[in-house]
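Session log. Operator J.P. requested a structure for one protein chain; no other inputs attached. Running the standard single-chain path with token output.
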Amino acid sequence: MYLYFNFKPNRYKTMKSTIIALFLLLAGSTVCFAQCDKSFTLTSSKTEYLDDKGNVDRAADEQTVVEINQSKVSVTIENGKQTLTGVIKSNTCNWATAFKDGKSIINTSLSEESGNGEKDYIFTIEGKDGKIRFVAESAQMPDKKIRLTIDKFEEKK
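Structure written below.
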């Protein structure tokens, strides 16, 4: 006597599960990508200049505004006293909660409005516990970093 069991999966159930899984995957990917291509402004009232070991060399109470969109960066210091602009070369973005918990690393070249030289920078924007930290470092100045205390984050629509 043979016992016959039909182990063929129900094609419609399998297809439905696959479609639901793909939809959830795409939705999650879209949310992650959506927060990475947003334009935003970071405003700081304090700038710290760090040595190669991360110790503060000097600190300045100055307003700095960093504007970032999909392709460009603008840094304005003391209401236009000094303005740097540049093009984003690459942007690595990984945020669990948009601009609250995660990290972006932006590679850019900045030059002054006067056209006085160009420097490559790596901006690290990190969110942790709802606070945003900003650090800029340049290959042309390997023993110095600039850290901004971010007072205000504003997403541009």
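Operator note: Residues 39-156 form a domain with the Lipocalin fold (CATH 2.40.128).
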